[in-house]
Protein backbone atom coordinates (compact mmCIF):
# COMPACT_ATOMS: atom_id res chain seq x y z
CA UNK A 1 0.00 0.00 0.00
CA UNK A 2 0.87 3.68 -0.06
CA UNK A 3 0.92 6.36 2.62
CA UNK A 4 -0.21 9.88 1.69
CA UNK A 5 0.26 12.96 3.88
CA UNK A 6 -1.94 15.95 3.09
CA UNK A 7 -4.16 18.75 4.34
CA UNK A 8 -7.87 19.07 5.10
CA UNK A 9 -8.75 20.48 1.66
CA UNK A 10 -7.45 17.45 -0.22
CA UNK A 11 -8.90 15.10 2.39
CA UNK A 12 -12.36 16.47 1.52
CA UNK A 13 -11.85 16.26 -2.26
CA UNK A 14 -13.50 13.15 -3.71
CA UNK A 15 -11.72 13.83 -7.00
CA UNK A 16 -8.25 13.90 -5.39
CA UNK A 17 -9.00 10.90 -3.16
CA UNK A 18 -10.36 8.92 -6.10
CA UNK A 19 -7.37 9.79 -8.31
CA UNK A 20 -5.00 8.38 -5.67
CA UNK A 21 -7.25 5.37 -4.91
CA UNK A 22 -7.69 6.47 -1.31
CA UNK A 23 -11.52 6.33 -1.22
CA UNK A 24 -11.34 2.57 -0.79
CA UNK A 25 -8.49 2.90 1.71
CA UNK A 26 -8.10 4.54 5.11
CA UNK A 27 -7.72 8.01 6.58
CA UNK A 28 -6.31 9.30 9.86
CA UNK A 29 -7.71 12.76 10.54
CA UNK A 30 -5.35 14.66 12.89
CA UNK A 31 -7.55 17.60 13.80
CA UNK A 32 -9.03 19.03 16.96
CA UNK A 33 -12.60 18.09 17.80
CA UNK A 34 -13.52 21.78 17.93
CA UNK A 35 -12.41 22.28 14.32
CA UNK A 36 -13.88 19.08 12.86
CA UNK A 37 -16.03 19.55 9.84
CA UNK A 38 -19.44 17.92 9.76
CA UNK A 39 -19.01 14.26 8.72
CA UNK A 40 -20.62 15.06 5.37
CA UNK A 41 -17.65 17.25 4.46
CA UNK A 42 -15.40 14.19 4.22
CA UNK A 43 -16.17 11.33 1.84
CA UNK A 44 -17.27 8.11 3.54
CA UNK A 45 -14.28 5.85 4.09
CA UNK A 46 -12.57 3.81 6.78
CA UNK A 47 -11.19 6.57 9.00
CA UNK A 48 -10.20 7.45 12.54
CA UNK A 49 -9.54 10.73 14.33
CA UNK A 50 -6.39 11.56 16.26
CA UNK A 51 -7.19 14.53 18.50
CA UNK A 52 -4.65 17.35 18.29
CA UNK A 53 -4.59 20.72 19.99
CA UNK A 54 -3.80 22.50 16.71
CA UNK A 55 -0.91 24.57 17.99
CA UNK A 56 2.82 24.45 17.44
CA UNK A 57 3.51 23.77 21.12
CA UNK A 58 1.87 20.36 21.29
CA UNK A 59 4.60 17.68 21.44
CA UNK A 60 2.64 15.03 19.53
CA UNK A 61 5.58 12.64 19.25
CA UNK A 62 6.97 13.87 22.57
CA UNK A 63 4.24 11.98 24.36
CA UNK A 64 6.09 8.82 23.41
CA UNK A 65 9.25 9.76 25.32
CA UNK A 66 10.10 10.03 29.01
CA UNK A 67 10.36 13.84 29.02
CA UNK A 68 6.62 14.08 28.49
CA UNK A 69 6.05 12.41 31.85
CA UNK A 70 7.31 15.54 33.60
CA UNK A 71 4.35 17.45 32.16
CA UNK A 72 1.53 15.00 32.77
CA UNK A 73 2.06 11.29 33.28
CA UNK A 74 -1.63 10.53 32.75
CA UNK A 75 -1.84 12.53 29.52
CA UNK A 76 1.41 10.99 28.26
CA UNK A 77 0.07 7.47 28.85
CA UNK A 78 -3.23 8.27 27.15
CA UNK A 79 -1.52 9.87 24.15
CA UNK A 80 0.89 6.93 23.80
CA UNK A 81 -2.06 4.54 23.63
CA UNK A 82 -3.80 6.76 21.05
CA UNK A 83 -0.62 7.04 18.98
CA UNK A 84 -0.15 3.27 19.12
CA UNK A 85 -3.70 2.79 17.79
CA UNK A 86 -3.05 5.27 14.95
CA UNK A 87 0.22 3.61 13.96
CA UNK A 88 -1.43 0.18 14.06
CA UNK A 89 -4.33 1.44 11.89
CA UNK A 90 -1.86 2.90 9.35
CA UNK A 91 0.39 -0.18 9.39
CA UNK A 92 -2.52 -2.59 8.92
CA UNK A 93 -3.79 -0.61 5.93
CA UNK A 94 -0.41 -0.40 4.21
CA UNK A 95 0.25 -4.10 4.88
CA UNK A 96 -3.09 -4.97 3.23
CA UNK A 97 -2.13 -2.97 0.15
CA UNK A 98 -4.52 -0.11 0.88
CA UNK A 99 -3.84 3.57 0.32
CA UNK A 100 -3.73 5.41 3.64
CA UNK A 101 -4.18 9.17 4.05
CA UNK A 102 -2.76 10.97 7.08
CA UNK A 103 -3.90 14.59 7.28
CA UNK A 104 -4.28 17.58 9.54
CA UNK A 105 -5.70 21.04 8.92
CA UNK A 106 -2.71 22.54 7.12
CA UNK A 107 -0.67 19.54 5.98
CA UNK A 108 2.10 17.96 8.00
TrEMBL record:
Q: Which InterPro entries match?
A: Prot-tyrosine_phosphatase-like
Q: Which Gene3D superfamilies match?
A: Protein tyrosine phosphatase superfamily (3.90.190.10)
So which domain of life are we looking at? Eukaryota
The protein's name in its UniProt record: Tyrosine specific protein phosphatases domain-containing protein
Source species: Hanusia phi
